[in-house]
Amino acid sequence: MDYAGADNLEAMKEAKNYNSWLVEKVVNNMPAKAEKIIDFGAGNGCFAKEVEKQSNKRVVCIEPAENMQEHLQGLKKVKSLECLADNEADFIYSLNVLEHIEKDEEVLRLLWQKMKRGGVVLIYVPAFACLYSAMDKEVGHFRRYEKEDLLKKVRAAGFVVKNCRYEDFVGWFAAMLFKLVSKKSGRLSKKSVWFYDRFVFPLSRLADFLSQGRLFGKNLLLVAKKE
User: Fold this and answer.
1) Closest to 150 in 3D by CA, of 176, 111, 124
2) Are the C-beta atoms of residues 99 and 143 closer than 8 Å to each other?
3) With bands split at pLDDT 50, 70 and 90, how would you rate the model's confidence at 4?
4) DSSP 7-29
5) Residue 91 domain-assigned (yes or no)
6) Is the separation of the CB atoms in 161 and 198 below 8 Å?
7) Which of 44, 66, 67, 182 could form a disulfide with 71 if both were Cys (CB 3.0 to 4.6 A apart)?
């Protein structure tokens, strides 16, 4: 099985500010004494490598896509959650992955099963079904999440939600514009990603701070615990 969004992943390498911000979110929510850290849906490994650098901890990558394996050289990796023992993980993070999985509720239950008591999960997914565009279809998204739907599914899996907020306030408008003008092509261009990252995303972070993630945004960031 290959990942259909490889070209868009390559374009997203230009999003230096955005990627650094995501790594910061992961590291800041990682329990201080976490030993077994899982990157669920590691893709090309760019986040796992940076998380390892900033946390000085080893990350185990879970990535089933064959065309992503060559990018994971030097990283510890397994092909599925089933390769982990039950009650093994201290911290699991998943960045823009659950939307690719048709039976996401089953995966959430499996994440809970593989996590130790007191373990933490961080989930970052695209928000608002109204923003579903050619890009989502291009990369194999089954859905974009409504906040209440995500909360319901995570709680049903057994987790206790600690925080769930919208992120990338300005990105909501950019995603809607992309949907309206790019009705056929879902490809991201490196130039547009670079421009958004350098000039628009800093403004979006300010808007997120002022709104406290309560209004809306392009994505949802959820942190939950197995208690």
Assistant:
1) 124
2) yes
3) confident
4) HHHHHGGG-HHHHHHHHHHHHHH
5) yes
6) no
7) 44
Tokens for 198? 């350098």
Contact 45, 10 (CB under 8 A): no
What residue has token string 């194999």? 140
Instruction: Name the residue range of residue 29's domain.
Output: 6-225
Number of domains, the chain:
1
C-alpha 17/C-alpha 70 separation (Å) is 25
For 133-185, how does the pLDDT look when each residue is reduced to its tens digit (9 = 90+)? 999 998 899 999 999 999 999 999 999 999 999 999 999 999 999 898 876 67
Task: Give the number of other Cβ atoms within 10 Å of residue 130's Cβ.
Answer: 12
- Residue 164 inside a domain? The answer is yes
Kind of pairing between the strands at 89-95 and 115-126: parallel
**What's the alpha-carbon Rg for the chain, to the nearest Å?**
17
Token pair 């230009």 is found at: 14
